[in-house]
Amino acid sequence: MIIGVPKEIRPGEERVALTPANIAALLKKHDIQILVETGAGVAAGFTDGQYEAAGAKLADRDQIFSSAQAILQVQTPGSNTTNGQDDLDKMKSGQFLIGMTDPLANPGFAQQLAQSNVTGIALELVPRITRAQAMDVLSSMAMIAGYKCVLLAATTANRMFPMNMTAAGTLNASRVFVMGAGVAGLQACATAKRLGAVVEAYDVRPAAREQILSVGAKPVELDLDTGEAEGSGGYAKAQGEDFLKRQRELMTDVIKDMDVVITTAAVPGAKSPILVTADMVKAMKQGSVIVDLAAERGGNCELTQSGKTVIEHGVTIIGPENVPSSVPHHASQMFGKNMENLLNLLLDDQGELALDFEDQIVADTVISHNGDVPHTRLRELLG
Ligand code: NAD
Fold first, then answer.
1. pLDDT recorded at residue 267
2. CB of 186 closer than 8 Å to CB of 295
């Protein structure tokens, strides 16, 4: 079969769905051809020459959409609602589309693909089982975002992170507080720690305590009943408003002493919980910084504006969008490896994509097939 990798078109997207190394590895294993759009990897630091040397053929966008049986994208039209429609219009009956589709926030995309008889595979739905870890783009990208958000905070803060004893006096270490200790939060803790900050973190999931300690940060304990906070796959369950209200009351006291607050709390398929209210921001130190990694899902801070940096009550609040794309080389390296591993599972001996719905990875990730939406959760969301 022919696999196509078009250049990403969502504004600001610098990643690419396969790197030259992934292509060389796939061509070695499978009887397939891979077309890559000219310039597709340039923003991520992969040249056309490197793709050709790896065995890919360079092509233009229209050629890729018309001749490839499978299109691989970082941001499919499902997650690229800005200008993705152009690509959707190019898709043909019988084709596969594999990439991020924002399935839980945009379930209607599965229906659109089904109407065009395109088989859609949403990478965000890769299950959290050991066998699928190597295909889990959410974890890969969260790791990158957790690292980068600390750098954003460090370069915005009006103080340094490490303690310094100098002839001109002692500079205290910055205090960093991370809310939500999942993959991004733990990487944020580790990165802030490496930069010399004093790091504390909090999560609703009781299991996070050990993980916070393991990256050298101090778990913050709140007098809250979090017994049932963990749902399936290690994800947090959505908390009720009473819980969140009490959490905010207790948290006010913690964050008023912090120099940097990083929020990463997410609940899959739901709007992010508000952990930091305007009043809590008001109580923070002048010159402190909040980086809200949940900005794109409504934000964990009430005052966050997605895609903007604002100063409120003397606190700088950064609401970055698409953070992994700002580290495009390593983000593509990880994304591409996840994609390569998934293709290794799906490609059969003839180099064709074969879907075995008995396999949990297939059943959980295929959002449209044979003109239908086979995915139970998406069907429920579609009503
Ligand atoms: P996520 O991106 O869904 O959310 C980030 C964090 O926010 C989570 O730790 C969550 O508990 C926390 N959170 C939600 N509501 C909160 C609130 N009100 N207050 C404070 N924190 C809140 O999470 P994630 O990074 O995907 O990771 C969640 C868990 O799943 C972690 O334990 C992670 O190690 C695990 N995980 C397992 C696998 C696997 O088994 N293959 C893969 C990835 C992650």
1. 73
2. no
